[in-house]
Amino acid sequence: MILDAKIPAGELADKWDNYKKHAKLVNPANRKKVDVIVVGTGLAGASCAASLAEQGYNVKSFCFQDSTRRAHSVAAQGGVNAAKNYKNDGDNVYRMFYDTIKGGDFRSREANVYRLAECSAQLIDQAVAQGVPFAREYGGYLNNRSFGGVQVSRTFYARGQTGQQLLLGAYQALMRQVSLGKVKTYTRHEMLELVVVDGKAKGIIARDLLTGEIERHAATVVVLATGGYGKVYYLSTLAMGCNSSAICRAHKKGAFMSGVSWIQFHPTCLPQSGEHQSKLTLMSESLRNDGRIWVPKKAGDDRPPQSIPEEERDYYLERKYPAFGNLSPRDISSRAAKERIDAGCGVGPMKNAVCLDFSKAIKEQGKDKIKEKYSNLFTMYEKINGINAYEQPMLISPAAHFTMGGLWVDYQLMTTIPGLFALGEANFADHGANRLGANSLLQACVDGYFIAPYTIPNYLADEMKVEKVTTDHPAFAEAEAAVRAQLSQFLNSKGTLSADHFHKTLGKLLYNKCGLSRSKESLTKAIEEIKQLRASFNKDLKITGDDKVNSELEKAGRIADYLELGELMCYDALTREESCGAHFRDEYQTPDGEAVRNDQDFCFVSAWEWKGEGVAQELHKEPLVFENVELTVRSYK
Amino acid sequence: MKLSLKIWRQEGVDTKGAMINYELDDVSEHMSFLEMMDLLNETLVQKGERVIEFDHDCREGICGQCGMMINGRAHGPLANTTTCQLHMRTFKDGDTIYIEPFRATAFPIVRDLKVDRSGFDHIIQAGGFITAGAGQPPEANSILISHETAEAAFDAAACIGCGACVATCKNSSAALFTSAKITQLALLPQGKLEAADRVVNMVEQMDAEGFGHCSNTEACEVECPQAISVLHIARMNYEYNKALILKP
Ligand SMILES: Cc1cc2nc3c(=O)[nH]c(=O)nc-3n(C[C@H](O)[C@H](O)[C@H](O)COP(=O)(O)OP(=O)(O)OC[C@H]3O[C@@H](n4cnc5c(N)ncnc54)[C@H](O)[C@@H]3O)c2cc1C
Ligand code: SF4
Ligand code: FES
Predict the structure, then answer these.
(1) pLDDT digit string (tens) for A185-241?
(2) Is A330 labeled as catalytic in the residue annotation?
(3) Which residues are within 8 A (CB) of A602 and not within 5 positions of it... i.e. 6 or more apart?
């Protein structure tokens, strides 16, 4: 199969306009005859569902939380990027495009990234119109700040709760459409299977998590906006429920999966404090605007950080990357932290952290100013650790955070299954091998508010003419039977180990062997071990409870998918014999430890095709063509 | 540490529930309350028993899902803290802890500690939004909003929809939740035009959902993880009366 990204003709800056000029429309009178399924109510899903409903389509919106407002987008703190150039500091669409392409280590599509930058300004307008209370200057104008990886101020924020506020804006737009009768929400529902008829996506099988009922839902298009899968590592910054099930099951039905091993480790998380821990908490990266990162110069220095004198501190980011310093991109900052921790310079009880120090900023700007900017983060830090970070440096360390990988989509955000679209973090995204801070909220919103509302109707215009599929179609019966079989297998398995046991084991394995750095050896080993773990899962799992409300049963399905995904991640990392962005192969580095990218052989998007149970997946390559930027070594020195 | 836990177990909406005793050893003071619950559930799985169902997701105090009554207080003994942000260092070895679901007629119990808070969504559907179409909004800086107004709107907008205010209120009133949204949108220029309809519709919906009336005990503010101020309730009443008086 040839992967066609369907990138429109024309100059880079004209491509999206060209697409929109020629996109097909659906007659307003016909729209009410079309059913659309949107799985996911995060920024991508809620904005898409609300936008399509507003155009007149009937939308069914699904999420596993008890309310659509609780999708994980709610947790994003730092901010959202937009090339508004309000600060007159030289920002523009091209610069944002360039920063993003470079940030992604030249592993993303030019056309997609340009469109992301192009639509960014409009997103701020959209959110403001909805009442999102972004930070304002005293004169009433919007305020913004700079974020990791860029030298201009293009990040808009609502205190440390930008994701929450953007999501509430989208949620409210969605609730408005519910009240108008154009959206029906199915909360506490989990999609467990995709239904494909004649090669096209025509519906889903979902489980009502309250009654245990298995339901069939048919539609003319299915949109997956189901978020990222960083929780595959168990310890991550993601919510407990985040998972890969929807995309994994679509993958098995023919949707290709891309860049799966590109997982960003966020440099500013709270360090792990013990074995009991279920997640790692992110401290907003915006803290790096004022906090300075350092470790003791001497390995094994046991003094409390605040008593280590200035000359014995190693401000390693400022030292190694003077141009960007504490604002160096996430992959660089995370790896630099790991490197220092591995060298024995880590601080904290488990020696697994580095210092994020505000003493200089407090001295220069005053405590009040710092309080105004970050007080909620300081409070949160104290709640979790019992430490006052106005007086002592915060302790931070890298944690699994964001998945650049996901379902392969073309320029229209359509997967390799016609009629199946993937939005937001669930697609392989515009980020390449690394995401710049504050670009993900943007991508999720832009996908849902501004792109899918053009590209989905373009598909529908033709698909409308095809006869509607109903839930009586045998494909639904077949998909439902598969779901039932899996659930009853879980409920009847007679093992002794809990679902969490498998999740934790897989997570640790991946963290060590396919985490911040990987090697041929570690990956080959990981693949073997995951195979064994899966075999054990199939016979040793123990699920208590019934087929109604049962969180253990929910977990089991998600872990089954993680086991498949984890293995694919390792294959993906293994075949990519280079270091790029979040993907650092030990074998491919310079003598001083910098990543060595190989554009000659690896300037492509990997797209994996499922070939059946127990059969190796087939790797397809979508070559990345750069016409507007020169592939340079990504240096932040 | 070692704890005695007394936890509400209830199969479903129509069945009767009861407090059940559990003993738990090896609780670390660094655990969050929910990690302690995970540990307990792990022991139940080992014994072949059904785990205790509770709602949670983000575990960082922002999704609003993890509500439960702990020793009679919504989200436990600390002020302005969600259950997931409550750590076991707040308790001591040998403590007995009572754990129950949020109770309110408008929040039916789903199972054990899980409740149905969809009433909140219905209140928002009744008008808790700004009627702004998607796609072609005006330039953001064409709507000037003073720093103070934006901050005040944010103070209200910070509500996470957790329902602690309802659970802690002797009338099970949703006034704090509803008023927070009303204040946020009424303060902003974008939301002014439909402010009157909004407040009337939302207040009516609040009643229709079976939430009680606010009798100004101010218990809600104390338990609210976001420290949402009861002054918003005053503002809601003001907006409501204004809407009724000025109704054309
Ligand atoms: C702690 C944290 C902080 C962050 N901070 C920032 C930031 O400052 N700036 C930034 O740009 N980005 C940030 N990000 C990243 C950003 O928040 C996410 O990438 C983005 O919100 C993802 O949005 P989404 O709509 O794709 O998915 P989500 O918001 O994760 O939504 C997924 C939805 O899918 C549903 N779902 C999933 N599977 C199923 C299923 N099988 N059946 C039914 N429903 C399902 C869920 O219920 C949910 O509604 C942060 C991420 C984290 C974790
Ligand atoms: S007002 Fe406070 S207590 Fe009530 S729902 Fe909102 S955040 Fe929770
Ligand atoms: S789990 Fe999200 S607020 Fe506690």
Answers:
(1) 999 999 999 999 999 999 999 999 999 999 999 999 999 999 999 999 999 999 999
(2) yes
(3) A576, A577, A578, A580
Which of B124, B223, B224 to mutate for ligand 2's pocket (most ligand atoms within 8 Å of CB)? B224
pLDDT in tens, A537-569: 999 999 999 999 999 999 999 999 999 999 999
Non-local CB neighbours of A24 within 8 Å, separated by 6+ positions:
A457, A458, A461, A462
> What ipTM is given for this predicted complex?
0.98
A149 CB near ligand 1 (under 6 Å) = no
| Strand order through the sheet with A189-197 | A189-197, A200-208, A214-218
Taking alpha carbons only, the member of A580, A582, A605 closest to residue A595 is A580
**Residue nearest to ligand 3 atom 3, measured at CA:** B61
- Which residues share a beta bridge with A224? A39, A422
* pTM assigned to the model: 0.96
Ligand number nearest CA of A100 is 1
The number of the ligand 3 atom at minimal distance from the alpha carbon of B160 is 3
User: Residue A636 above 80 pLDDT?
Assistant: no
Q: What is the pLDDT of residue A328?
A: 86
Q: Which ligand is nearest to the CA of B83?
A: 3
pLDDT value, residue A43:
98
| Statement: residue B103 has pLDDT above 70 | yes
- Residue of B35, B111, B114 lying closest to A277 (CB–CB): B35
Atom of ligand 3 nearest to the CA of B63: 2
A45-60 tens-digit pLDDT: 999 999 999 999 999 9
Q: What is the mean pLDDT of residues B114-137?
A: 96
Q: What is the pLDDT of residue A148?
A: 60
Q: Which DSSP letter does residue B236 get?
A: H
* Helix H or strand E encompassing A364: helix A359-365
Q: Inter-chain contact B31–A281, Cβ cutoff 8 Å?
A: no
Q: Are strands A221-224 and A35-39 parallel, antiparallel or unpaired?
A: parallel
Q: How much is the average pLDDT of A378-399?
A: 90
Look at the block and give the residue holding tokens 């407002």: A69
- Structure token digits, residue A624: 């990345």
Cα–Cα distance, A26 to A55 (Å, whole number)? 10
What domains are defined for chain B? Answer: 3-111 (3.10.20.30), 117-132+143-246 (1.10.1060.10)
Distances (CA, A) of A535 to A391, A526, A560: 51, 14, 11
- Rounded-to-integer distance, Cα A451 and Cα B134, Å: 12
Residue B157 near chain A (CB below 8 Å)? yes
